[in-house]
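Let's sit down with a protein and look at its sequence and fold side by side. Please make up or recall a protein chain and show it to me in full. Label the sequence line and the structure token line clearly, so we can match residues to local backbone shapes. Go ahead whenever you are ready, and we will take it from there.
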Amino acid sequence: MNAIPRLPAMPPAADTTIPAYTASGNERFLFEKAWEKRLPLLLKGPTGSGKTRFVAHMAAKLGLPLFTVACHDDLSAADLTGRHLLKGGETVWVDGPLTRAVREGGLCYLDEIVEARKDVAVVLHPLTDDRRILPLERTGELLAAPPSFMIAVSYNPAYQNLLKNLKPSTRQRFVSISFDFLPREREIAVVSQESGLDEGAVAPLVDLARRLRTLKGQDIEEGVSTRLVVYAASLIAAGLPRAEAVTAAIIEPLTDEPEVRAGLAEVARAVLG
């Protein structure tokens, strides 16, 4: 009897295929265990604290197809599940990102979930309990999520208000992880790695960001994200003078108010020298 030929083993994926991510705690372990136990995940934290990068990192690490949705005021349940469209004179059904994630056993990530319309949360409910199903009323299908499927959502608690928030009935369907900015030394290392600027030159930029974060809720609505610090460091590494890079990448994105910009510039001069 002839032996069944075996296909050659695929070489392991290179580390470069996995987006870089610096952990601040045990969030990677928690994510992996939530996925293994088929639990939905809620990520909360300030803008630029690494939530989206973390999801991309974990999806690549686990080998999951990633379907990312940037939520906004007009995002409806139909945008997630799909709709009938005209193609070539025929009406055909086109899956939305959530439906594709269910069919393919991937990870569906809804960024800033509180920005979406209320019916989005409703369509997630049967997927975030022990049923793990997605009813498609327009096609008559009832999709059962495979074991590898996962939902992750994120939001910034600072933006919550009476009109935009997560209802307790929705929030309590998720395992939750809180994110914050990295400790000083870790943030310096991350910014240096991302921008190519040496750590000695990065350190004052991180110190400025940490100083400006203390002004959150006073002169500025949101603190300086690590992303903006990376932008400033990248511009400096490319040859732009530091003062111009800080203005373009850190101060200008924070406010449109001339008086506030002038105050932030004064803080920058005091910190950077």
